[in-house]
Amino acid sequence: MTNLYPWLAPIYQQITHAFSQGHGHHALLFKAEQGVGAENLINAVAKFLICQESQKPCGYCHACQLMNAGNHPDFHLLAPIENKDIGVDQVREINDMVNQHAQQNGNKIVLVQGAERLTEVATNAILKTLEEPRPNSYFLLQADLSSPLMATIYSRCQTWLVNVPVQDMAIPWLQSQCDEETSQILTALRINYHRPLSTLAFLQQGLMEKRREFLRQFWVYYIRRSPLELLPLFDKELIFQQIDWLSAFLSDALKDKLKIKTNWICQDLVKGIQQFNQKQTTLGLLKANQIIQKMRLDLIQINAVNQEIILLDGLTKMITDVFEK
Hints:
Number of helices: 14
Order of helices and strands: HEHHEHEHEHEHHHHHHHH
Oligomer: single chain
Strand order of the largest sheet: 2-3-4-1-5
Shape: elongated
Radius of gyration: 24 Å
Largest sheet: 5 strands, parallel
């Protein structure tokens, strides 16, 4: 009764087998890449733990029906509210619920989404519960793979790393989900750093052509040395993807300059990169990559109202500090 993405099935089987053998851990930490469907895995584990039948998850018992309906009284969510860090009051509320008797006389589940967003005080508040777990209480913590967590969290959890799947597993799944040619799927998979769900969304939203148009306009910006040639093409909904498209192009340009022929993302733009590189220097490309990374970081950290200023500043710096006359 589980609909798992194929690359997640082996992890799910290992986890559920341990529980079936009586060796399951009370706190599972899932460190995952974006766009690989970790939520799908965690939800499946939660359904396994909440089901009260011998064959789990059955999908038919009262506990499964409540879970599928999204209103099981013994399933609790701890997550950022309005994009704010998870505070100590939220954790104390969860701790109180865990200390109570299960309303359905089964297991109690706490899903912690964005565990890296726990404040230091909130982390300390949840640690005691993780150290001294209540009977039939389980914590499922989800965190971004690249985000740091306090060592005390790691020490009290069983950690599962959910990485991007191998290409031979991702491509057949993507072929089953869309009608694109294999060459297009391969290109989209590289552009999206081998994240299958991100790749599927990229293809379904027609972003392949938008990327081409965006990078064509980057060439116009480069030739005319005018940020206003590229600035209007930035889309608030796609801005981080567009920054990644620029980053990939400039990163591959640097690889070309250094005679590195492997692990290119923009393999569909080799000729364009080589033409662009005729007037670039290695140090200049290093500087360009640094400018793009700073743009991305600033866009994450600074109020969205200032997005256009950040973009204009970065594009101007590349003209003045990088591109040769």
